[in-house]
Design brief:
With 636 residues, the protein is α/β, with parallel strands linked by helices. The protein is 23% helix and 23% strand. The chain folds into three domains: 9-120, Immunoglobulins (Immunoglobulin-like); 147-516, TIM Barrel; 524-629, Sandwich (Immunoglobulin-like). The strands form seven sheets. An eight-stranded parallel barrel has the order 10-11-14-18-19-20-21-22. A six-stranded antiparallel β-sheet has the order 23-24-25-30-27-28.
């Protein structure tokens, strides 16, 4: 049935202005409409303080077509019968002082490839999805009890053609998805795919929030990519930037000649650090725009979650550099920002409680992942930036000095359950001169790769879900460069292929061992054996599943010194076996075979009545599991 969009436009704008229109993309922008017995497209834009708004485009020969005010709603709208899909268009906005500018359509679903900047008429027809099994499986078990191992990537620099052009969404579905599946990752996380003019911003300075960047493809191709990912059992998360936007004059900046999407106060509007403009998170219409945008990507594209970028910038009024304006009580917390985030999470989870809402939040703000009714912000995951910083600082030290800084590797266990954490080794840590993970650690190539295996085994066993940026799984030497593909040729060098195979085995072990992922959000899933052995720099702890018999003992040696006859307490009498030894030869190490099974001795150690003796490899990590133990109810 054909739809007349103009009939209820005033009512729709009423909800938009109240901040309660969570599907405003259905009526704003360019939309098919049937009016006065004619097919055409209706164009609607919010420019509340404009003196006049006109539509120009291919279908008007770029001559101005005046738009009509929609009562006192702040919207302007016009119906055009000559417009068609694929046509370019812009809005010509005259402000109250008589100044005029061409502007994009904030709700456009497509744009020209930069440096061109016209909006493009693009339909988003109903799609027959083929991911029913994936979506049904998501509901069978709470996300907190399932493995979550994310492969973060930048779309256009994972792989490129010989001429430097990026792979299309179709090509990525044929290459990236099988690779991710084989490597054992559960999800991919894309750095922002929304339209952005400068590639060096990696998408974090967005202009077209409702469009896929034209250099990547279009929204229809992106939907097909996600559908194919789900069919292969791979979830898809996209980075999303609701805190700030690109200040380019043709886009959202001072859209109608006045602060429209940004704050009126320059101290709050202008983001000095990133050269952007901050959204006015206290404005109802901005709520409708942004929450609709989240719903658009989550529901129209079946995304499994969004990682909300730069949450700290929305929580603190003084997070940026330079002058800042306090809140009404003289404090630095942005109450409008916190209210927006709570509202966002409430709306999203009311519509789909299985969504991943991940906060990239770098401060000690409390209760980011606690429910709103308990005083939290309502996210269900937060990146653990403290863990990441401490861990990388620790591993970058000479091993001889690590014993003096052992708290860097153990302190995280003190707060690991304060939030629902994701442990990230993200793109931010391997760019701008920070070096690749391989380049951060000291030693020759043999010891560097031994250290990388150690890092990843420690990370996989530490409570919290996991994220690694592309290239980390290969041990690339060069830091990430957005304009080139990954250093795939490194797999031809010594140790790299073995290391990639190691990561694959480690990832699949994580998938299959419930002790590594079933209880990440409670202390009952982790028991420390010894966190005080700084002299030998060995950390040991237990990871547990919900079944008492199902647990893993983790032993991490952070120095290149082998420890023989190493005594360690175990919770039950019996026989234990080696599950993982990061120094096995097939991984690039020196061990040609694993250790013999370990039988307990009736010798107390720490809190345990029994202990075992083992060899802890130099710069190695061991995962040990019970093979035959006594004193445990077989049903547990």
């Amino acid at each position: 049935m054909k739809r007349n969009l103009f009939e209820n436009l005033e009512k729709e704008m009423y909800l938009f202005n109240k901040g309660e229109h969570y599907e405003s993309y259905r009526i704003m922008g360019s939309k098919r409409s049937f009016e006065n017995k004619q097919d055409g497209w209706r164009f609607t834009v919010w420019a509340p303080h404009a003196k006049q708004v006109s539509l120009v485009g291919d279908f008007t020969n770029w001559e101005n077509v005046s738009m009509d005010k929609v009562a006192e709603t702040g919207a302007w709208s016009v119906f055009h019968t000559q417009a068609d899909e694929g046509h370019c268009y812009k809005y010509f906005i005259e402000d109250q002082q008589g100044n005029s500018k061409y502007k994009i359509d904030p709700f456009a679903l497509a744009f020209e490839v930069p440096p061109k900047d016209a909006s493009i008429i693009q339909d988003l027809p109903e799609k027959k999805w083929n991911d029913g099994r994936w979506r049904a499986n998501k509901k069978r078990k709470p996300i907190y009890k399932k493995p979550l191992n994310i492969y973060e990537l930048h779309f256009s620099s994972w792989k490129q053609h010989e001429d430097g052009t990026p792979y299309s969404f179709y090509e990525l579905s044929e290459t990236l998805l099988p690779y991710v599946k084989e490597m054992g990752y559960t999800h991919i996380e894309l750095m922002p795919v929304m339209e952005h003019p400068l590639e060096a911003s990696w998408g974090y300075q967005t202009t077209g929030f409702y469009a896929v960047a034209a250099r990547f493809g279009n929204v229809l191709e992106f939907r097909e990519f996600i559908d194919k990912a789900h069919q292969q059992g791979i979830g898809v998360i996209v980075d999303w930037v609701p805190g700030h936007f690109c200040k380019n004059d043709y886009a959202l900046a001072y859209f109608d000649g006045t602060p429209t999407y940004e704050y009126h106060d320059p101290n709050r509007a202008i983001n000095q650090r990133w050269g952007t403009l901050n959204f006015d998170l206290g404005k109802n219409q901005v709520h409708s725009f942004l929450i609709s945008n989240a719903i658009f990507w989550l529901e129209e594209f079946h995304l499994d979650g969004i990682r909300v970028d730069a949450v700290s910038n929305m929580l603190y009024l003084d997070y940026d550099e330079g002058d800042w304006t306090p809140n009404e009580d003289g404090g630095n917390d942005n109450r409008q920002g916190t209210a927006f985030l709570k509202k966002l999470n409430t709306v999203v989870f009311n519509r789909d409680p299985d969504t991943l809402m991940i906060a990239e939040e770098s401060t000690a703000w409390a209760n980011v992942t606690k429910p709103i009714e308990l005083g939290g912000l309502g996210f269900n995951y937060k990146w653990n930036m403290g863990w990441m910083n401490d861990t990388l600082k620790f591993y970058s030290m000479d091993p001889l000095h690590r014993k003096n800084h052992f708290n860097l590797i153990t302190f995280s266990f003190m707060y690991a359950f304060n939030e629902n954490f994701i442990l990230p080794f993200s793109h931010d840590e391997v760019v701008h001169g920070k070096k690749s993970l391989l380049g951060k650690v000291p030693g020759d190539r043999y010891n560097q790769f031994a250290t990388l295996r150690n890092i990843q085994a420690y990370m996989m066993s530490h409570p919290g879900k996991k994220l690694n940026f592309m290239g980390n799984e290969m041990g690339v030497f060069l830091e990430w460069r957005f304009y080139e593909q990954l250093e795939w040729s490194s797999l031809e060098q010594e140790f790299n292929q073995e290391y990639q195979n190691y990561i694959k085995e480690l990832n699949h072990l994580y998938l299959n061992q419930k002790a590594l992922h079933e209880i990440d959000d409670a202390r009952s899933g982790t028991e420390i054996i010894d966190a005080d052995n700084h002299e030998e720099s060995i950390l040991s702890f237990i990871r547990k599943s919900e079944k008492e018999r199902d647990f893993l003992i983790i032993v991490c040696n952070f120095t290149p010194v082998e420890r023989r006859d190493f005594k360690m307490g175990v919770p039950y009498e019996g026989i234990y076996e080696e599950l993982l030894n990061t120094e096995r030869q097939e991984f690039g190490g020196t061990w040609t075979k694993g250790q013999e099974d370990m039988r307990t001795m009736a010798e107390p150690y720490k809190q345990f009545e029994h202990s075992i003796n083992l060899i802890v490899p130099a710069m190695g990590v061991l995962y040990i599991r019970p093979k035959r133990i006594y004193g445990v109810n077989k049903k547990k």
